[in-house]
Amino acid sequence: MSISLKRARAIFVKDYKEFSRNYAISIMLIFPIILALLFRSAGPNLPGAIGFLHNISFVLLTCFVQACLIAEEKERNTLRSLMMTPATIIDVLVGKSALVFVMSAVVLIISLFIFGYEPASLWAFVAANIVSIILYTALGTICGLYSKTLLDASLSILPVAMIFSGAPWGAVIADDYPIFKVLDYMPSSQLVHLLNVPQTGFTTGDLMKPLLIILAWTIVLTIVSVVLCQRRLKDE
């Protein structure tokens, strides 16, 4: 399926104008920055702080905003109108996701600068964050597709917050409760592993294993979001 950059850019501009006027959603931009300011004093001495900052930022910003953008289109019944234009599903998803991607990347950079985190490997850190933003954008798309209103979208991310943000904490008790060991393979848990790689003495395998697991999750969820988008629009 081909993509038209011109149509995707038009959707990007439209969403940016609507987003800038919706203060109830745009206020989410400041939450990761506030968390970074709160954690800054403890810095690296606070166990799990950098992992929590990343994972909760992806849920509160990336996933939530994407879900709201999709749900808002559905509430106004403009999503189907978009699909009746020459724009394809890929054009629509790329255009809407691009805004969330840019916002997430900029806010995360600001938050990490405030927090003062230095990764063991810059290329692995950047790759993990890019892939994670795409992953949570796909999750937000899925949540938005099953939401009829903005309120529904706000509630739909609660399971995502509990499962994905809580997975690293659940994996900690896997030694006592083996059933929780599966949580260690969640993308949020793997991101924490990657962020906790020491700056010296690490191997390429220490970086590649979590990266590949996060990438696998991203590919699957992205495919699911595209397929669901096609089906949900046909059913309405």
Describe this structure in words.
By secondary structure, the protein is an all-alpha fold. 75% of the residues lie in helices and 0% in strands. It contains ten helices and no strands. Helix 4 runs antiparallel to helix 9 and helix 7 packs across helix 8.
How far the N terminus sits from the C terminus, by CA atoms, comes to: 22 Å
> Structural class, please?
mainly alpha
Q: Based on CA inertia axes, which overall geometry fits?
A: globular
> How many extended strands?
0
Radius of gyration, in angstroms, nearest whole number: 18 Å
Mean pLDDT: 83
Strand content: under 5%
Would you list the SSEs in sequence order as H and E? HHHHHHHHHH
| Spans where pLDDT lies below 50 across 5 or more residues | none
Helix percent reads: over 70%
Q: How would a crystallographer describe the biggest sheet?
A: none
Number of helices: 10
Spell out the blueprint of helices and strands:
Layout: H1 5-21, H2 23-26, H3 31-40, H4 49-75, H5 79-83, H6 89-115, H7 122-145, H8 150-172, H9 187-195, H10 204-235
Helix pairs in contact: 1-6, 3-4, 3-6, 4-6, 4-7, 4-8, 4-9, 6-7, 7-8, 7-9, 7-10, 8-9, 9-10
List keywords for this structure.
236 residues, mainly alpha, 0% strand, globular
